């Protein structure tokens, strides 16, 4: 271990500050869900011309002992301001910087005034600076430091509690002070075994319950990242992503690195999303300190409730997170993973997911928890969605899916079959059409005696013959256009309505032409898209309205 005489540090400290031997090095902080840089921590490094790189553990303790630490911390802040302005001049995306303050800083001077003066000098906003404080700062004089922290908050600074868990009074400190972020030092856990996982899960769960964001520092492995993401830890920092870098190296890193920087306008958006408690049995509700369930034991395991975070930007959908329970439910509906769902939505017009789209739009509009039953790939399921955050052009939904187990819901299945027959009986005729193969699959149901010969011929021939035999002569041309399925598909995609509907006089069994409602409905089944051709009787009032439309507003028809 490096050994430097204490007096050497004292004798050379001022010279090192003046000549730039002591400088700020920067280690980025990564947003877990997006893997973007959301901030960076400034760390003091002393590159001595004679002794080489001095360990911070050596010189920081000496500077604190001699009450010189405030000079170091303010110099680091000036370094931050230099770097911030250089990034601004180069057109690089800006993000907050965090700086560590010592307990003794507050004894030597008015740190809020000193920091504010430096920021004004360099035209750097307080929101660009995060203040990191270790719990040892607050062990004494609680009221005094509470007033100081309140003043920092009022001035626009965020306050992080650094090295949570490394001291003896962490829980008391959390009770007495208001922090924005809890920094969990992974190094105080010697491994990532089950005991460590339980502790980390408990800490994250507790932090979310009292409204504090979480950041794990000292992250070094992919295994740690996977676990921290699973339990909902919002931010990560450590050698896995990057070692601390000089200002020059960091600016070069920003310009060339594959990793991108979070848009500052979206920070509040992601902070809001970060409040979702992945471990709660009721993750759709933000749990506050006033309604935290006393019997919540879910801190020891992943939530049994299926949960996904789904970002909606225009017609584009992206899953930012999905837990194990959600992925298991998705597989029951016919998708192996969330990527397959994203691809399906990207490759199909919105109307093909009409029911789901309507639910999502209702969630975005109301901000309430919306639950609806759906049917896809022979599976009945309930989908729950709630809008939890939004920006000008995108939204984040918390989503949950629960399929019905046929073995446990047999009665529901029987009732569905029973009453579906009742619904079908309200129609006069239903034919299933496969447009892609130019054929009629089957005459599913008919009570008006339409000839079954149509199902034996190609679709294009059948619809022309049907128009000739079954439709009033004056309406045949319109009917032929109405049943042009290339036109139908384009109309459905443009209107985002899976139903095309118009009135026609259809021949009855006794040869009389009766005005009926004719619909073409797009649907999907496991073997692809199909169309339902449906004829339904009209009530007298509906007939009168249809006749009025056909005579006075014929331009509204095809």
Query: Rough shape?
Result: elongated
Please tell me the overall pLDDT.
85
Please give the count of helices: 19
**Any idea what the radius of gyration is?**
33 Å
SSE class: alpha/beta
Mind describing the biggest β-sheet? 8 strands, mixed, barrel
**Could you give the order of strands across the largest sheet?**
1-2-4-5-6-7-8-9
Total strands: 19
> What share of residues are in beta strands?
25-35%
Distance between the termini: 86 Å
Low-confidence stretches: 286-301
- Overall helicity: 25-40%
Describe this structure in words.
The protein has 19 helices and 19 strands. The longest helix has 21 residues. The protein has an 8-stranded mixed barrel, surrounded by 5 helices. The chain has a 5-stranded antiparallel sheet with strand order 11-10-14-13-12. A hairpin with a 4-residue loop joins strand 15 and strand 16. The termini are far apart. With 558 residues, the protein is of the alpha/beta class. It is 38% helix and 26% strand. It is elongated, with a radius of gyration of 33 Å. Helix 3 packs parallel to helix 5 and helix 16 packs antiparallel against helix 17.
Nutshell version of this structure?
With 558 residues, the chain is α/β, with parallel strands linked by helices.
């Amino acid at each position: 271990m490096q050994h430097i005489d204490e007096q050497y540090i004292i004798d050379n400290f001022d010279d090192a500050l003046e000549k730039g031997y002591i400088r700020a090095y920067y280690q980025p902080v990564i947003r877990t869900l997006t893997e973007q840089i959301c901030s960076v921590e400034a760390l003091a490094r002393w590159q001595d011309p004679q002794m080489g790189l001095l360990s911070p553990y050596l010189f920081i303790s000496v500077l604190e002992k001699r009450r010189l630490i405030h000079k170091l911390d303010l110099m680091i802040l000036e370094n931050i301001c230099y770097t911030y302005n250089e990034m601004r001049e180069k057109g690089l995306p800006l993000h907050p910087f965090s700086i560590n303050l010592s307990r003794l800083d507050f004894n030597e001077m008015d740190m809020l005034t000193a920091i504010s003066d430096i920021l004004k000098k360099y035209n750097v906003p307080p929101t660009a600076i995060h203040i990191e404080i270790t719990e040892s700062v607050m062990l004494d004089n609680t009221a005094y430091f509470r007033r100081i922290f309140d003043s920092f908050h009022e001035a626009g600074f965020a306050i992080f509690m650094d090295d949570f868990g490394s001291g003896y009074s962490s829980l008391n400190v959390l009770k007495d002070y208001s922090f924005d972020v809890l920094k969990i030092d992974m190094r105080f856990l010697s491994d990532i075994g089950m005991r460590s996982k339980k502790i980390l899960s408990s800490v994250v769960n507790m932090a979310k319950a009292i409204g504090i964001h979480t950041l794990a520092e000292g992250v070094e492995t992919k295994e740690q990242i996977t676990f921290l993401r699973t339990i909902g830890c919002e931010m990560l920092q450590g050698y896995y992503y990057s070692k601390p870098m000089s200002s020059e190296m960091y600016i070069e890193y920003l310009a060339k690195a594959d990793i991108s920087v979070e848009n500052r306008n979206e920070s509040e958006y992601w902070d809001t999303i970060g409040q979702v408690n992945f471990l709660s049995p009721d993750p759709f509700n933000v749990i506050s300190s006033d309604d935290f369930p006393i019997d919540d034991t879910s801190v020891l395991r992943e939530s049994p409730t299926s949960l996904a975070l789904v970002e909606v930007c225009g017609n584009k959908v992206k899953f930012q997170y999905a837990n194990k329970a959600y992925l298991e439910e998705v597989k029951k509906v016919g998708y192996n993973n969330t990527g397959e769902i994203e691809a399906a939505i990207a490759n199909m017009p919105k109307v093909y997911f009409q029911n789901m789209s309507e639910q999502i739009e209702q969630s975005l509009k109301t901000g309430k928890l919306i639950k609806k039953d759906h049917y896809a790939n022979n599976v009945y399921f309930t989908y729950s969605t709630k809008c939890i955050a939004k920006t000008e052009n995108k939204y984040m939904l918390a989503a949950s899916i629960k399929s019905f187990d046929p073995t446990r819901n047999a009665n529901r299945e029987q009732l569905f079959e029973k009453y579906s027959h009742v619904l079908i009986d309200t129609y006069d005729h239903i034919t299933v059409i496969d447009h892609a193969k130019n054929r009629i699959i089957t005459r599913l149901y008919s009570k008006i005696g339409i000839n079954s010969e149509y199902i034996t011929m190609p679709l294009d021939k059948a619809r022309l013959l049907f128009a000739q035999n079954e439709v009033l002569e004056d309406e045949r041309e319109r009917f032929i256009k109405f049943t042009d399925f290339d036109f139908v598909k384009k109309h459905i995609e443009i209107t985002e309505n899976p139903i095309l509907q118009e009135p026609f006089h259809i021949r009855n069994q006794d040869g009389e032409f009766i005005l009926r409602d004719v619909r073409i409905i797009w649907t999907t089944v496991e073997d692809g898209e199909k169309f339902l051709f449906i004829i339904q009787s009209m009530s007298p009032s509906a007939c009168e309205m249809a006749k009025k439309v056909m005579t006075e507003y014929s331009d509204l028809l095809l």
